């Protein structure tokens, strides 16, 4: 909204700064951050009163969780999504289709997560909305987003799969790009959801991955940068940097209350929404494969669950002491803070490797 103040720059030249994506991204970051600080505590108190006993804790999980996490409210993702929505609407250019696409995916997956969290809290059981219903709803949302992305992409890139490192290499998937993009978006949403099992574990890697994708979005949206880096030019994606900045600001505001010991859990409301956002940004910028590198931590968490389930069904034995893999390290005796910080470090390393693919051509 504030972008349109730039149209008054003929009368007041200082308003011209609102044309710059980097300036508005900075504004979006601080707006979301302040929003989180201002409304975080009141929201937590409302959730605590409304939810009573808080999020149900799995009895088959790590034993310590039944003591340390009992009574903690969930749905903290509402704080992130509220800050993200307000800040993006305030600072982003409303005529940009990619912003609306990513916002649609984020809020739609947030609604799925909210329904799941509400079912868990109201019934006081860890079994919320059935997994089948969640998957079907997620794939429907992702299908709309994938077709939308194909419509927004320039003709020479629509339906194409781009590869990192190999300059100019494209694989024409045609309409098969839609199911591929659906898997990317739904996979990212559920991978982040599986990672969200310890205080602060998911939100920092999400912010690191989002920041990396934001830089990529800005780069591929500028013809001068794409010519220098040898990557595909996707017009208008630079505006996604404003969305990403708002996500990071809202994420930091949430982390203030989610840092161990957490005053509130993100819940599926936040994890599904943020994971969906990462997948949607990757699809929009034609960096779906790079997302698997930048978000490698989420990939490992999801694979640990898949491997555990398939191996157990076949042999009645377990590969990990417990899945997702962060619980495996808990069972080995690692402290929660050790796991969280070390996973943050791994996430940062993977994001750096993913970013390096912009130049390695």
Describe the 3D structure.
The protein has 361 residues and is mainly alpha-helical. It has one domain. The protein has 14 helices and two strands. It has helices at 21-51, 65-68, 77-91, 97-123, 131-152, 177-195, 203-220, 223-229, 240-258, 267-284, 288-294, 296-315, 325-331, 336-356, and strands at residues 160-162, 170-172. It has a two-stranded antiparallel ribbon with strand order 1-2. It is globular, with a radius of gyration of 20 Å. It starts with 20 loop residues before the first helix and ends in a 5-residue tail after the last helix.
Overview in brief:
This protein has one domain. It contains 14 helices and two strands.
Label this structure with key terms:
single chain; 361 residues; mainly alpha; two-stranded antiparallel ribbon; 14 helices; 2 strands; globular
Task: Please outline the helices and strands.
Elements (H helix, E strand, L loop, with lengths): L20 H31 L13 H4 L8 H15 L5 H27 L7 H22 L7 E3 L7 E3 L4 H19 L7 H18 L2 H7 L10 H19 L8 H18 L3 H7 L1 H20 L9 H7 L4 H21 L5
Helix pairs in contact: 1-3, 1-9, 3-4, 3-9, 3-10, 4-5, 4-10, 5-6, 6-10, 6-12, 7-9, 7-10, 7-14, 10-11, 11-12, 11-14
